[in-house]
Amino acid sequence: MPITFAFSCFALFGLLLLVPAVPVCVALLLGKRKRPALAVVCVPAGMIVMSILLTLLVFAGAELHSRIMSARPAHLFQVTFGFQPPSDTCVLEAYHESIMDYATTLMKFRTSQDVMDRIASRNFTRTDKATFVQECGGDEHNLPARVWSWFLPAAEETDRFYVAEPFDESFARTKAVLSYNEKTQVAYFHWAGVD
Fold it and tell me: Which among 152, 78, 70 has a CA at the least distance from the CA of 115?
């Protein structure tokens, strides 16, 4: 992620400044000049501390964002597909995770054929079951077991499969898969993006 790279550079620059600052600080302290000695050391030390704190703040913000999005499935549906879920659409399960340069969203929802066609019209193309299973299988070790417990049966319970690549233009590499059971009207959606 570019911002954490900037924080790392800022910390490295602080470390480079700290190397010559320590002997200067010692010389100033030996000359009984406390204030200039503290000023010489505090600037690079402050740069290092600030870069660490800002990086932790970015991580905490990403975790908070993931929890909020997972807790508000209707909002996650709207953000993902670009429209509010209609009254005949119910999001049954939702999970979102974003960590630095990676994000993923999984959803299980019940919806009508019309809404499904509207979602599929967003650069999705029809595919087969094998492609759907292949695209979903790689992330099972990165996500909580509770998520895979409701998502993994997707291939067995659905009869229409879609894939979209790219799905979200804000990531360098992004792919989404979607499946739908025409009888139960239950859909499964999985998206992952990596910079």
Answer: 78
Domain identity same for 149 and 121: yes
How many domains does the chain divide into?
2
Q: In what order do the strands lie in the sheet with 160-164?
A: 90-99, 102-110, 186-194, 173-181, 160-164, 125-127
In this structure, the answer to whether residues 98 and 175 fall within a common structural domain is yes
pTM of the model as a whole = 0.73
Clarify whether residues 118 and 172 are in a common domain: yes
One digit per residue, the tens of pLDDT, for the chain of length 195 reads: 566 677 778 788 888 888 888 888 888 888 888 888 888 888 888 888 888 888 888 878 877 877 877 778 888 888 888 888 888 888 888 998 887 778 888 999 999 999 999 998 888 888 888 888 777 765 554 778 888 888 877 777 888 899 888 887 777 778 888 999 989 999 999 988 887
Same domain, 87 and 138: yes
168: containing domain: 73-194
Residues 6+ apart with CB under 8 A from 44: 14, 15, 16, 17, 18, 21
